[in-house]
Amino acid sequence: MFRALFNEETDLAVRIDAFQNAAEELRVKYDDGTWRNHYRNTNVISTYLWLRYPDKYYIYKYELYKAAATELGADYAPKRNGSETA
Questions:
Q1: Does 68 map to a domain?
Q2: Which domain holds residue 7?
Q3: Which among 85, 78, 66, 5 is positioned nearest to 39, based on CA atoms?
């Protein structure tokens, strides 16, 4: 999962989707009913990318992104779950 996420030769959106899908597959396979989170949201994935490539990526934070979009009068409103689509 992480090797694929860190593969800079692949489109970022494809890598994020693949990571989220692999995390979901692990959750389905190993969840005994006690898992509350399997750390596959955009904030966590952006943290993984930032830790590996700190000069290229940043940590996604919904509240900051929304405040900036509002201040700039952007037509785009970010989603709370960090989805890359509006």
A1: no
A2: 2-56
A3: 5
Total number of domains in the chain: 1
Tens digit of each residue's pLDDT (9 = 90 or more) over 45-84: 988 998 999 889 877 777 776 777 788 787 766 666 655 4
**Residues with Cβ < 8 Å from 75, sequence gap 6 or more?**
none
Considering only CA atoms, which of 39, 38, 82 is closest in space to residue 59?
A: 82
Q: Is residue 75 part of a domain?
A: no
Rounded CA-CA distance 24/76 in Å is 28
CA distances from 51 to 2, 16, 75, 80 (A): 12, 15, 31, 22
Residues shown for the chain: 86
* 33 within a domain of the structure (yes/no): yes
Global pTM value? 0.68
